Amino acid sequence: MAARDYGQYSGLARAVELVGERWALLIVRDLLTGPRRYGELAAGLPRIPTNILAARLKELQAAGILRRAPRSRVIVYELTPFGRGLEPVVLALGAWGLQAMGDPRDEQIVTPASMAIDLRTAFREDVAAGLPATSYSARIDSADLFIRVDGRLLDVGGGTGRADLAFAAGPALLRIVSGDLAPRTAIETGAVALLHGDAALLDRFATTFRLAA
Amino acid sequence: MAARDYGQYSGLARAVELVGERWALLIVRDLLTGPRRYGELAAGLPRIPTNILAARLKELQAAGILRRAPRSRVIVYELTPFGRGLEPVVLALGAWGLQAMGDPRDEQIVTPASMAIDLRTAFREDVAAGLPATSYSARIDSADLFIRVDGRLLDVGGGTGRADLAFAAGPALLRIVSGDLAPRTAIETGAVALLHGDAALLDRFATTFRLAA
DNA sequence: CCGCATCCTGGAGGATACTG
DNA sequence: CAGTATCCTCCAGGATGCGG
């Protein structure tokens, strides 16, 4: 069951033995936003073969990273405290990867869980601390995300609600975060469609969530 | 040349597409401590197939993570600024992995590059700031490491020199860092052999390099 | 000898069908 | 819905060859 060995006695080698297999870190990321059922995980991981998902879940469970937990007649997968220790890793890797995003291709999707982590990655709490509390309702590729910023606190979750600014966007939202796309341009080109609220709030959004140089 | 796609438009997915392949992060780690030649990389990566090393180097070069640079008639591989951006990732992963180190097996080796990163991972600069400047000369598995701690500054490099404390140790040195092994016990069991200097300095070492809870 | 390229084999990854 | 079983593809692993 143990992953293949790298023949090195070091922290990094051990880490990649545990979570270096394909899909593993993406599964961990999706679980960072809360427990998930098998089908939810499969839906968030486009085209992952179901046998691979099952195998990864077993391996990650054997490694003590996640556990199967019964929740009122259904099984959910949730991270253990050890697995939650991967949060800095996921955020650091995500921040690095955001610098190298190419143009989104048609087949590439954005899931609530992935966008939630990307936003947490790019969240600048020092900037947010100087701004009034703001809530955003974002419809990303037919999935709803509710984002609440209050001082240094960030809360990103699914679902909808009454927000200061509501907008719909595709993958291009990440290009705003990575600094490749100006909010005004995004609105003009239709990459972001405002549903209600002041357009200036999208500038605030872009200021709050912006990858550090 | 691009690695296989995860079908997601997110920072993490992009990152694992670039450095998620087997051996890739270990190569990056070794290059974090300085440029290396092909043979040096191969020596530090136990049993990596040479064709895999060549393939990874090409992929990482194509991704803009490293570059081949001629250095006085020989080729060395060095990280680009973009590749050096992976340092927080490597440190975070290493810190997490250090919590899950099992007992070292005979076939597992410790290289200067891996130990250097592990020490940087576990370096507690707040603690070091309150201690006098200290230098350590460590012989790890027939490789020499010179460690200089001065206030919040840490310098780890190869080679030897006149140090306040000189000792020889095997992989067990990491067990001290991860808190599984007390310095006194290490000396008593012979896991660490003092060459010269005060044994109390090994306590200081263990205090300076200790994985945070 | 160093720095790869080539060849071959075994096992992991990928797509699909199937079952409790 | 939550996986298991099956088949096939492809990459990693290992040995070897070869040019500078």
From TrEMBL, chains A, B:
Superkingdom of source: Bacteria
Pfam families associated with the record: HxlR
PROSITE patterns hit by this protein: HTH_HXLR (PS51118)
Keywords: DNA-binding, Transcription, Transcription regulation
GO MF assignments: DNA binding
Domain HTH hxlR-type: 10-105
PANTHER family xrefs: TRANSCRIPTIONAL REGULATOR, MARR FAMILY (PTHR33204), TRANSCRIPTIONAL REGULATORY PROTEIN (PTHR33204:SF18)
Protein name from the UniProt record: HxlR family transcriptional regulator
